[in-house]
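Ops channel
N.P.: pipeline sanity check, posting one input/output pair.
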């Protein structure tokens, strides 16, 4: 008689988005709510403010700030479940906004690895951050400064 063998447990399926895959691989649980922020750059303040109203209408907290010669909108959502479906919906919204605004660029998003509730009682690292400057926006800022000098 053969001994009973346990079937191996199936590996949990990874999301299709590479950033969400990294969150899972670093120990994040996508079934828990977290904070995430999207960044969209605009050539002028007027178009940034107009887009910020549309973004706020879908449930994001928005901040409109200058970044060198450009303006950016940081669209923040806290305590939300981030998955492939919600990400796809957000991408469609931001793509439609940049399609309607000449010169606008969606610069992607950030999502916290740990659950949002771990930060209760104090501001999460993303909320504490003052002004978003990644490598891409620094390049744009430098380009804008060079244009202004000419």
């Amino acid at each position: 008689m053969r001994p009973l063998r346990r079937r191996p447990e199936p590996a949990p399926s990874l999301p299709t988005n590479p950033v969400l895959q990294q969150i899972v691989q670093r120990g994040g649980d996508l079934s828990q709510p977290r904070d995430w922020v999207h960044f969209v750059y605009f050539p002028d303040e007027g178009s940034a403010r107009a887009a910020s109203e549309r973004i706020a209408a879908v449930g994001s907290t928005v901040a409109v700030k200058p970044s060198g010669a450009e303006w950016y909108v940081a669209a923040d959502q806290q305590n939300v479940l981030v998955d492939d479906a919600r990400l796809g919906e957000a991408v469609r919204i931001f793509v439609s906004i940049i399609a309607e605004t000449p010169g606008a660029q969606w610069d992607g998003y950030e999502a916290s690895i740990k659950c949002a509730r771990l930060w209760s009682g104090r501001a999460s690292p993303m909320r504490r951050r003052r002004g978003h400057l990644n490598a891409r926006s620094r390049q744009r800022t430098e380009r804008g400064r060079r244009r202004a000098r000419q």
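N.P.: looks fine end to end. The chain has a mean pLDDT of 78.
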